[in-house]
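Re: that backbone. Tokens:
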């Protein structure tokens, strides 16, 4: 099975870095990307902190997508778990273009 390591990195108001990663099956990635709003939206990253994105393309510039082997996936999950920090999973957390 083809796997993707998707890393997210952004910064809120030059005061805090917001980072995370998660693994995805390669075949589910197009549906996740399609679920991202293609108009302005905000993502809450703290109790009263939001990061604003102009659209899907703007948000995607903060992701680094790397294809990894099943062996690499198993090793990373064993060492680090199946995800960490922030990664906004549009469509999975109700954050789709229908909500904006």
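Recovered sequence:
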């Amino acid at each position: 099975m083809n796997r993707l390591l998707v890393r997210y990195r952004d910064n809120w108001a030059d005061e805090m870095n917001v980072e995370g990663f998660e693994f995805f099956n390669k075949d589910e990635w197009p549906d996740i990307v399609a679920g991202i709003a293609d108009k302005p939206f905000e993502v809450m990253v703290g109790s009263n902190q939001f990061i604003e994105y102009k659209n899907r393309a703007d948000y995607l510039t903060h992701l680094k997508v790397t294809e990894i082997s099943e062996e690499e996936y198993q090793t990373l999950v064993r060492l680090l778990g199946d995800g960490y920090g922030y990664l906004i999973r549009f469509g999975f957390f109700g954050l789709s273009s229908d909500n904006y």
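The mean pLDDT is 84. The first helix runs from residue 29 to 34.
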